[in-house]
Design brief:
Length: 99
């Protein structure tokens, strides 16, 4: 039986939101980011949208491509967590409704 991935937890969602914000400020597209990270489009968007947790390896790869440190991603994620209520339907950094 195939293992069904569980949805991303709060910290994984916050890291995904931080990556999305950093991508919005970068001079590369989402497609270039996931291709340079060796990731497929469905895998990238499942992580970005919180359907699947973003791993530390993902954060490290995206940070390297975005020319920031994984610590900078974590600091931004922590800051976003302070601004975002801890509910399953919290609004993501990109203004998209989670749920």
């Amino acid at each position: 039986m195939a293992r069904v991935p569980r949805p991303a937890g709060r910290w994984a969602r916050l890291n995904s939101d931080a990556i999305s914000m950093m991508l919005g400020r970068a001079s590369i597209s989402a497609k270039e980011l996931y291709e340079r990270a060796g990731m497929s489009s469905p895998t990238f968007y499942a992580r970005r949208n919180g359907k699947v947790p973003m791993s530390l390896n993902d954060v490290e790869a995206f940070a390297r491509i975005l020319n920031v440190s994984p610590l900078e991603v974590a600091v931004l994620a922590n800051h976003l967590g302070e601004l975002t209520p801890d509910t399953p339907e919290s609004t993501g950094a990109a203004g998209q409704r989670r749920g």
